[in-house]
Amino acid sequence: MTEQGYFTESSSADVVVSRNAAAKDARLAQVMEVITRHLHAAVKEIEPSTEEWLAAIRFLTATGHTCTDWRQEFILLSDVLGVSMLVDAINNRKPSGASESTVLGPFHVADAPELPLGSDICLDQKGDPMTVRGRILGTGGAPIAGAKVDVWQANDEGFYDVQQKGIQPDFNLRGVFRTNAAGEYWFRGVKPKFYPIPDDGPVGRLLNALGRHPYRPAHLHYIISAPGYEPLVTHIFDPDDPYINSDAVFGVKASLMAKFQPTVTEAGTTYAVEHDFVLAPAK
Ligand code: BEZ
Ligand code: FE
To answer: What spacing in Å lies between the alpha carbon of 160 and ligand 2's midpoint?
Structure first.
């Protein structure tokens, strides 16, 4: 006999949980209990056929096989299930007035060049020019001088440099800036466009089967940090983007909308974006 008797359909979760009673780590035991109970409840509710369960196993196997050094299909799965944003929300509860966070995404690179304020991060002159400016503030409203503002964006066709090696210059549309004494940052880039998350693998096929599109609305990525403050991983979004209300990874928040103000001249259209960020004090 086991602690809870032999395995039956009705006692299944209790039997498995009790088998883990000697777990060497209390947190692991807690996590495995919760996962076991929810998973067994889901299987009981769904009542999968053996073939359906094998299809699920094949899906997870394909997800693993799609992972490489530069492609993390499990994170993509977490993203489209809304789990990445939920983990982000739980770990980034902000005090009133502080800017909200959103997903990091897979396209940040750690060693982007530090550039003087006002630099153009668009190295290939493609797309509609855009100026971006704003201030980095504390929750009390004081400007933060010397804050590090790490930005990256997709080009006007919706691709990051790392997705188009040999087509876009290395470090295209990325840069690290430091705010001036008034807490201000500014740089030039190009108006970003919506783009699909990588959708040629199992996660893309799942989205398709669910009748969902793979697009993220146009956005700029930021990681903002300064001594004495919580780092902020966030985006600003174009509220006029066609996908603003259906981001494939649920990253949009009302407070992260920034107006992309157009100026039309004979030479073409340029855009101006202004957005301040408020950092929470370090915990
Ligand atoms: C991104 O915004 O770069 C991104 C976020 C989640 C999944 C794929 C891309
Ligand atoms: Fe992105």
So the answer is: 8
Nearest to 177 by CA among 221, 119, 229, 233: 119
Q: Domain-by-domain residue ranges, the chain?
A: 1-47, 94-198+212-279
What are the C-alpha distances in Å from 2 to residues 7, 14, 26, 194, 229? 9, 11, 21, 55, 52
Which string of DSSP letters, residue by residue, matches 120-144?
B--SS--S-EEEEEEEEEETTS-B-
- 76 CA distance to ligand 2 centroid (A)? 12
Query: Is 40 strand, coil or helix?
Result: helix
Question: Class assignment of domain 94-198+212-279?
Answer: mainly beta
Label residue 280 exposed, middle or buried (CB < 10 Å: 0-12, 13-18, 19+): buried
- pTM of the entire structure? 0.93
pLDDT of 186 higher than 90: yes
Mutate to test the pocket of ligand 1, among 79, 101, 220 (most ligand atoms within 8 A of CB): 79
Query: Position of tokens 């466009």?
Result: 193
